[in-house]
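User: Sequence in, structure out. Go.
Assistant: Echoing your sequence, followed by the structure tokens.
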Amino acid sequence: MLYDKTIGHPTISKYPMASSYVQKFIKSWINQVEGEVLEEVYDSLSVALSQPSSQIGYKIYTFDGGAHYLATRETVAMCSKGTTGLQTWQACLAMCQWATENCHIFQNKKVLELGCGVGLLGGVISHMCDQVTLTDHHQSVLRAAQHTLDINNINNGNVSPLDWTRIGDVEDEVDVVVAADVVFDRTILPHLVKTIKNKLGSPTGRDKVAYVCSTIRNKDTYNTFIEEINDQGLAIDNLDVSGLKSVYFSGTDVIRLIKLRLTI
């Protein structure tokens, strides 16, 4: 289970969290908890409500039953600095949880993440794999991802720019490709699928797979993505994520996780 922990992180507890995020999180937690809520929780909400409004701050996540912590610096704005990649979205949170429950997929593997955002997914997977490369095209996003690696002391991860229209930018020696919440703009979907196909087709002598997790906000856009995959000859397996539960995504969020392979 992946969840947020707002205190106690030994590395970044001195950094501020966005007051608007803290308010939203506590209110969500109160609404979902069953039974009596401790008075201290309401005290924390009162403190958060009294703080000056802020849009950027740190979030601290814990996973593997609390064995590992991971911190990110995010904005609460949907779009900031011309990109949506400076906050973590629902499909990324779902995929982080799925990854922790299927860590064998990444063991002894080199992993490439497409559209890494602030680096939460890559950071989570770094605890399971040999090496992970986080890629994106926007410079602000790349800096945010590098910041996540730095403050969490992740030594087996690196950040690299990758333009999907120039698919040779990143070293091809990878075993697993992952991506979350990257299906939202129809114009980039052909380039996204070509990039995935290129990475799966590079010679390493191993069977390669890609996992793409999406929140279905526009069915037509997602259907276009599936059509592009079929047109480019990749095999699709739909994975069951119906059992994933989190404070971050409600039961009304439609999450899809697919596994892609080259056809023989």
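User: And one key feature?
Assistant: Residues 19-32 form the longest helix (14 residues).
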